[in-house]
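Field reference: sequence -> structure
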Amino acid sequence: MAWKTLDQMDLAGQNVLTRVDINVPVSDGVVTDATRIDRIVPTVRDILDGGGKPILLAHFGRPGGERIDALSLQQLAPALENAFGAPVVFAADCKGPAAKAAVDALQPGQVLLLENTRFHKGETKNDPDLAAEMAELGDIYCNDAFSAAHRAHSSTEGLARALPSCAGRLMQAELSALEGALGEPKRPVVAVVGGAKVSTKLELLGNLVEKVDYLVIGGGMANTFLAAQGIDVGKSLAEHDMTDTASAILTKAGSAGCEIVLPTDVVVARDFKAHAENETVAADACPVDAMILDAGPASVATVAKVFETCKTLIWNGPLGAFELEPFDAATNAAALQAAALTKAGNLVSVAGGGDTVAALNASGAGNDFSYISTAGGAFLEWMEGKELPGVAALNQQ
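Structure field:
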């Protein structure tokens, strides 16, 4: 662990510029899902308890460097105040006189929310001048936005180089979980990768086959791998132009000693809709007029046995069309098995990605996983083995 945490910083009397991700859904000015806000509460509370003054930096939407009232962070102040249990003061800019005046007027026990960083064109360009202007507002920089750490922006990368820096509690938890899962994990390690397309997860698959002992492939991706083995997948979602790539991944996995687990039986239907008439057939017996929408019970049993032999699980993507009942069965069953093993202390389970979080929560398994990441792109890029600018900058402190 090369990065510092809040525990290693003297916070008393310090203005702590804290980068957070509160890019939450809002309807008619009301936050409809406060998950990301709830996740930053420990960091804000610890700064307050340590005698520091939290000054929040965040983006909201994609204003493209323009000031757009509908994307002002001011509308989030009530939700933040409710979550923190502390007064939240708003400043109409994240740099310059308005921000400086708000910082100077900030009282102990208060939280300052600065305006949307992306109202400035320099933010997404990692403009050093913008970073320097923001740095003038603080004594310490705390990055608690892992989900934005794959972006080299002024408020995520530039600031970390301009001030004494540390990771916030959410960032700390994310990095600890991921380093434990892919850095020096307890073996054997199994990764579950699902989703529609091989093409969107090529780098991920290529990295994982060299780092894990088992790779379970599900969803539409599995269909492409089946097709690469000469299996007719009927009208199933598959990237037939990617079969050579899938074959190359299978070969690479074999050389690396990674066992790829594909469905041996599948649930097929003629219509892509909930409760469509369906049947379970062998993976190589999909009717020409049907489509594969889920892994079958024998496949799930195989996955469950793999989980039982492993010590670490990394999960990204569903095993089938989980948004349509009953084609969520394989994802639900596998997730509940992983959750049970985790709860029993036999498995460390880390999951992330939008569809993944939704699927695990829908199954009721989410609460028992060791860690579920709120990040999408950053989680994937970490799994792909890429260096995240926001994390790399912290490591250089």
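Note: The chain has two domains: 6-171+391-395, 185-364.
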